[in-house]
Specification:
- The complex is a heterodimer of chains A (187) and B (177).
- By secondary structure, chain A is mostly helical.
- Chain A has two domains: 98 residues, Orthogonal Bundle (Rna Polymerase Sigma Factor, Chain: A); 89 residues, Arc Repressor Mutant, subunit A.
- Chain A is built from nine helices and two strands; from the N terminus they run H-H-H-H-H-E-E-H-H-H-H.
- The longest helix of chain A is centred in the first third of the chain and has 23 residues.
- The N and C termini of chain A lie far apart (47 Å).
- Chain B is mainly alpha-helical.
- The longest helix of chain B is centred in the last third of the chain and has 27 residues.
- The radius of gyration of chain B is 33 Å and the shape is rod-shaped.
- In chain B, 16% of the residues are buried.
- The chains are: A mainly alpha (187), B mainly alpha (177).
Chain lengths: 187, 177
């Protein structure tokens, strides 16, 4: 879709209104505007490009289905991100998410780490690799709070967690990332 | 006691400050729209095949209205409207033909009944119709149910019993003059 065509479709609220009435072209405009952030969010939370592609598709299909219930009380992008987070969590609840392995730590607690082979060694920024290697719960809060700037309250609402749990996950994430980056710097 | 520095903003933590500079927008490696559009199209086709709530509600009203009309017709002139066992009934043509033969005789006797007797007969037939409606609705969900088909047969036999009683009754049931 050209910029000219996108301009012709009007502003976002108008496109949302048209999409709610079944206008697929208007919805495609919304897709074009938001796909980068939705895919980025899914990629950040899963660490796997193929899975992120599937979840991005699920997000927009679910959004289309849920559009009649969107009342505009939150920004469209926030509403879309909630749907994306739900898609990621639903995929994670499915029997052992794709490309994730389950491990048990010394205290017997289950810890899920992104599979090492999926880590892109060519990634120029060590921090991205450190985030990708985090266990899912810690990774979620770093992505939502750290990268996308959602408050603890907003992130907790999206993840259906207590605010305190989110803060604890963030603390844990910082420790794990520091440890990983420290190891990398000394190897 | 060690306290966890909750609530520190990204700008106060070097790692989170770096994280906030990571790109929020990442283009997927391929255009996902064609696959999404195909799924939306499939969804629309499936939705058009489905009963919507308003349609289901309208259908419910229609069933209720037909049932009420049948009951009203039975109350008004029970001799003209035999019990309707619905499309899921396992009753065969032979059974319904036998019922119809008895019905002809029942209609002939009906007008001769005393008013209170006639009213009692009408009420009993209305009860049978309601039972047949309920069993028919359950059979629509579970057509192979032996229990429901047995209940429907029992209802049919009760209807025949009423017709038979009226037809074979003596002067005790007839209109007082």
């Amino acid at each position: 879709m050209t910029e000219l065509a996108r301009d012709a479709m009007g502003d976002e609220s108008e496109r949302v209104a048209r999409a709610r009435n079944g206008d697929v072209a208007a919805f495609e405009g919304l897709y074009r505007d938001h796909v980068g952030r939705v895919y980025g969010l899914c990629l950040g939370m899963t660490g796997h490009p193929a899975t992120a592609e599937d979840l991005t598709q699920d997000t927009f299909v679910n959004a289309w289905r849920s559009l009649p219930g969107y009342e505009g009380r939150s920004r469209f992008s926030t509403w879309l991100h909630r749907i994306a987070v739900n898609a990621v969590l639903a995929q994670r609840r499915a029997p052992l998410g794709r490309n994730e392995v389950s491990m048990t730590d010394d205290e017997g607690e289950t810890m899920d780490f992104a599979a090492e082979q999926e880590m892109d060694e060519a990634t120029p920024i060590d921090l991205e690799r450190a985030i990708a290697a985090l266990p899912p719960g810690a990774r979620d809060i770093v992505v939502l709070h750290g990268i996308y700037g959602y408050s603890h309250e907003e992130a907790a609402g999206m993840l259906d967690l207590a605010v305190g749990t989110c803060k604890a996950q963030l603390h844990r994430a910082r420790q794990l990332m520091r440890a990983r980056l420290h190891v990398e710097q000394h190897t | 006691m060690t306290t966890i520095p909750f609530g520190r903003g990204p700008q106060k933590d070097p790692l989170l400050a770096q994280a906030s500079n990571l790109p929020q927008e990442i283009a997927p490696p391929r255009d996902l729209w064609p696959a999404i559009a195909a799924r939306l199209s499939e969804q629309s086709r499936a939705a058009s095949r489905r009963f919507t709530w308003p349609m289901a509600l309208a259908a419910g009203f229609l069933v209720a209205a037909v049932s009420a009309l049948l009951t009203w017709g039975l109350m008004r002139d029970p001799g003209m409207v035999p019990v309707n066992y619905g499309p899921n009934s396992a009753l065969g043509a032979v059974q319904l033909e036998a019922r119809d033969e008895l019905l002809v005789q029942f209609r002939q006797r009906l007008d001769e009944l005393a008013p209170e007797t006639r009213e009692a007969v009408v009420k009993n037939l209305a009860i049978i119709q309601r039972a047949a409606d309920e069993i028919g609705a359950a059979l629509a969900q579970d057509p192979a149910s032996g229990l429901l088909n047995g209940l429907l047969l029992s209802t049919y036999q009760q209807e025949l019993q009423i017709y038979s009683t009226v037809v074979t009754s003596g002067d005790a049931l007839t209109r007082r003059t």
